[in-house]
Design a protein that fits this description.
The complex is a heterodimer of chains A (about 180) and B (about 500). Chain A is an alpha+beta fold and about 180 residues long. Chain A has five helices and four strands. Chain A has a four-stranded antiparallel sheet with strand order 2-3-1-4. In chain A, about 40% of the residues are buried. Chain B has helices at about 20-35, 40-65, 80-90, 90-105, 115-135, 160-195, 195-205, 215-245, 260-285, 295-325, 330-340, 345-355, 365, 370-395, 410-435, 440-450, 450-460, 465-475, 485-490. The longest helix of chain B is centred in the middle third of the chain and has 34 residues, at about 160-195. Chain B is globular and about 80 Å long. Classes of the chains: A alpha+beta (about 180), B mainly alpha (about 500). At the A-B interface, helix 1, strand 2, helix 2, helix 3 and helix 4 of A face helix 1, helix 6, helix 7, helix 8 and helix 16 of B.
């Protein structure tokens, strides 16, 4: 009993899993995390996960892109080396717009995606932290930290009642480390 | 997502009556987890031959210079830029499907976005190789980027649309790649968790350690939405800027303000045609009829009619304005296109892009797989001719009649083009083997709301308007993957 680290409720249906979350929460059982093969809307609100602030970051990345592009073009073709192109003005703002636009997008995309990878700890070669191998296939997994709650049988019962197909007692946190 | 029933009036996006989450994974990963079949090998061998031809022709060009192409001093751009614009155009459908249709909440995009985006990336690779190949001194290709004067050139001319194009194409390629790869992470993790041994190790590296927990998915959705939001104007800007390569020049036939919208419509038109060319075959060979249904095919055909008609209107407007402007050079350029020595190219373009796509107004043609497939190829032939007409016929008769010339391609021109198609198909066939051709996680989202079995459950549950149910069952007649007998019993 004492070796059990995590109790996993494995559901075959997202609605039943949501029901399982409610059941556990009604009984003051803290949910460690939920693993699903697809995004489930409404789950963040139930688990009290704060909204992602990546959108704010994306905006600032975009602004950086716009100003960097303007600075690059202005400093090269207006300040550093004015080219005489048919006697036209060097500071031709309309001609700067396409590159300013493209770099806005480029900086936003890279800033956003790289921050996403960094904040979620996604990078090539990272050992996958998987509790149940079917969580990326057809099962919706609720994980409960067994050390925090003594009444394991009650948790099993609640999960089963909510419709869990199986309940697992894992003695190691992540099975993917083998 | 849970608990909502989608209106019965909407066609199902997943057909079949015993689809489960596990079955979706199995069906989509079938080509990835099993040895390829004969059809794949035949296609692959042909494509690799094409790719080899490309390698030979491009190496020959690098070794001997651009003189090995059929260009002359009047026609300085021909098959190279035609090929470039053709490939960039094809590369527009993927991002349109994944970004614009996401913003419009068109859920049918979920089953076609992955392969369409892959197609985009491979098409842009082909386009980029054309840019490098046509430079003459490809080892100095980095000169297109802003470099200080010590490198032998002045700063690049930021007023030039060719420089804008460098930024546009490289941004488009890298943002499409990021969008595609981020969407792939959960699906690579699915393969990883089902694989063993070496395969598991490899997919583990490429899955970036994806776990699928709540926070990861929450951020994933934010990232997808923002990427879609920024990719929408991006996809429109790319072909706009490509068209400015021509539109900002003073060559009659190029100097036209209609170019940006007309090029963008043409790009979407040819991109969807290429998606159909690939997916009609892939759905059959890979057995994906339940996920890429007749509804998907019909929807794409409708987009083709729309964009094809925009292109048609643009051709006619251009012709009208050439006369109405009173500029005799402009008028001559257009009359020469239609009646000059390249009349056949012009009428080929008009037939393939304006006339034949109108056949898709007929429901029977729109819902016939062989007819759609042939039309999709006709459209891409037409779109190649469109670029050829714009580029070569505008150049071949310039202001001095003494320098009027015709363009004759050499074997190198032809081989680079045919070879680039080989490169494209090689990459696409490899993609089908190693990565899921349909976004598994996104299709799973549709199972409980938009699948045929979910709708069937709704019908069986009663409480539905009989007229609506009748309409729904009638809409199912077009599907080749639905058993209608099931509905007669109800």
């Amino acid at each position: 009993m004492s070796n059990i680290k995590y109790i996993l409720g494995s559901f075959g249906d997202p609605d039943e899993m949501m029901h399982g979350i409610d059941k556990l929460q009604e009984n003051n059982i803290k949910i460690h995390d939920v693993y699903t093969p697809m995004p489930i809307h409404g789950i963040e609100a139930k688990l009290g996960v704060k909204r992602s602030r990546l959108d704010i970051l994306a905006f600032f990345c975009g602004i950086t892109g716009t100003t960097s592009a303007f600075a690059l073009i202005y400093l090269t073709s207006v300040v550093d080396w004015r080219m005489n192109i048919g006697g036209k003005p060097s500071f031709a703002l309309p001609d700067f717009i396409p590159i300013m636009f493209e770099l806005t997008i480029l900086f936003t995309a890279f800033g956003l995606v790289l921050s996403y990878y960094a904040s979620t700890h996604l990078f090539p070669g990272r050992a996958p932290r998987v509790m149940d191998l079917r969580a990326t296939d057809d099962r919706f997994i609720i994980a409960v930290d067994a050390k925090l709650h003594a009444e394991h049988i009650k948790i099993d019962g609640l999960l089963k009642e909510a419709g869990a197909i199986e309940v697992k007692h894992n003695e190691r946190k992540y099975i993917s480390y083998e | 997502m849970s608990g909502h029933n989608e209106s019965i009036l909407r066609e199902p996006l997943i057909t079949g009556d015993n689809i489960t989450y596990a079955k979706i994974t199995n069906d989509i990963l079938m080509p990835v987890e099993n040895k390829p079949n004969k059809a794949w090998w035949i296609g692959f061998i042909f494509s690799v031959c094409g790719a080899t031809l490309w390698l030979v022709a491009v190496s020959y060009t690098f070794w001997n210079g651009i003189g090995s192409w059929g260009l002359n001093k009047t026609v300085g751009w021909a098959w190279d830029i035609t090929g470039f614009v053709w490939w960039v155009g094809i590369g527009h459908a993927g991002t349109l499907i994944s970004a614009v249709l996401l913003l419009f909440r068109q859920n049918w995009r979920n089953s076609i976005n992955r392969s369409a985006e892959a197609m985009t990336i491979f098409a842009v690779i082909c386009a980029a190789t054309y840019i490098i190949a046509h430079m003459g001194r490809p080892w100095l290709a980095y000169w297109v980027f802003p470099l200080p004067n010590q490198f032998g050139s002045l700063w690049v001319n930021f007023n030039s649309p060719l420089v804008w194009d460098t930024f546009a194409i490289s941004t488009y390629f890298s943002v499409s790649l990021l969008f595609w790869y981020t969407g792939l992470l959960p699906d690579i993790a699915t393969i990883r968790d089902r694989a063993t041994g070496m395969r598991r190790k490899i997919y583990s590296i490429f899955s970036f350690g994806w776990s699928g927990n709540v926070k990861t998915w929450q951020r994933f959705e934010t990232v997808s939405l923002i990427l879609a939001g920024i990719s929408t104007p991006l996809v429109l800007s790319v072909h706009t800027i490509v068209s400015m390569d021509f539109a900002t020049s003073v060559i009659p036939g190029w100097h036209t303000t209609i170019f940006p919208p007309y090029f963008v419509a043409g790009a979407i038109f040819s991109g969807f045609a290429m998606v159909l060319t690939l997916l009609l075959v892939a759905r059959k060979v890979l057995g994906l009829e339940n996920y890429i249904t007749m509804f998907h095919i019909e929807s794409m055909n409708k987009i083709i009619i729309l964009t094809g008609s925009i292109v048609g209107v643009a051709y006619i407007t251009e012709f009208f304005i050439a006369w109405y402007s009173g500029s005799e050079y402009e008028a001559y350029a257009f009359v020469n296109r239609a009646t000059g020595p390249y009349w056949w190219a012009y009428w080929m373009m008009m037939t393939c892009n304006v006339l034949t796509p109108q056949l898709l107004w007929f429901k029977r043609i729109r819902l016939s797989i062989p007819a759609t497939w042939v039309l999709s190829i006709v459209i891409n032939v037409g779109m190649w001719f469109e670029r050829f007409v714009i580029i070569v016929t505008s150049l071949h008769r310039d202001y001095l009649p003494s320098s009027w010339a015709m363009f004759y391609p050499t074997w190198v021109d032809v081989s680079v083009f045919v070879g680039s198609i080989g490169v494209f198909f090689t990459l696409f066939l490899l993609f089908l083997r190693v990565l899921p051709s349909i976004a598994i996680a996104e299709v799973k989202l549709l199972l409980k709301t938009s699948s045929e079995q979910a709708k069937m459950k709704q019908i069986k549950g009663g409480h539905l308007d009989k007229v609506h149910v009748k309409e729904y069952v009638e809409s199912l007649e077009k599907f080749d993957s639905v058993k209608l007998e099931e509905y007669e019993k109800i």
